[in-house]
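User: My collaborator sent over this chain with a note saying "see what the structure looks like." That's all I know about it. Can you take a look?
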Amino acid sequence: MIKKWIEACSRVFRYKSKLKQRLHELDVYNTSFVAVDLELTSLNPSTTQITSVGYVSGRGGCIDLSSCGYHVINTTADLGQSPVIHRLTLDILKKGEALDEALHAFASHIKQQVLIFHNAKLDLTALNSAFKQCAMPKMDVVYIDTLRLALYQLNKQHQVLPSNSATLSVCRQRLDLPAFNEHNALDDALATHQLFLAQLSELGISKNDTLDCLYHTGAMGYVQLGGV
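Assistant: Without extra context I'll predict from the sequence alone. Here is the result:
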């Protein structure tokens, strides 16, 4: 038992050291970011299925709209409330792409970029499962979670957080960003990218800073998609 505990602690230490070293090598405003959003059939990470993927890249404080990607996935999974929330009905999904085709397009786009999510844990769990399901090559990714960045700022201001204070739309409102069409993967990805840039400004991040300046917020992470 003690040996397993020591091994687990050692893995955590190596993970943190590797992440901090990687972040120290990346200049904030000279790094390519890609904001990613998934629409899912449920919020249960063990059973949820991807119905659509949206992503958009940016660099140097600018968003490249020509880089936008959007894939509707052909799935036979139980949709639950997804058609109501995301407006992706069964007839629309039947015309979508196979999951492996969408993942190959997505994977080729995100190489060498830092991923941005709003609620990274759920989306990364779904992506990891999908990579395994489709036998995709394993991919190491560095990511940042705008939800965690928001919570970092909110926890400095409130002892008890207001209800729903860290949703994507509320986070944008708090930073005076305009309203957007929610629950479309591409629209949400673009909204997340805009939020991230606003958060950098809020945190006072300069053009001379490297990404390790955000490590203390708890919003940065490193995972292997398709891994254990």
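A starting point for your reply to your collaborator: The helical segments are 2-24, 82-86, 90-94, 99-110, 120-133, 146-157, 168-174, 185-202.
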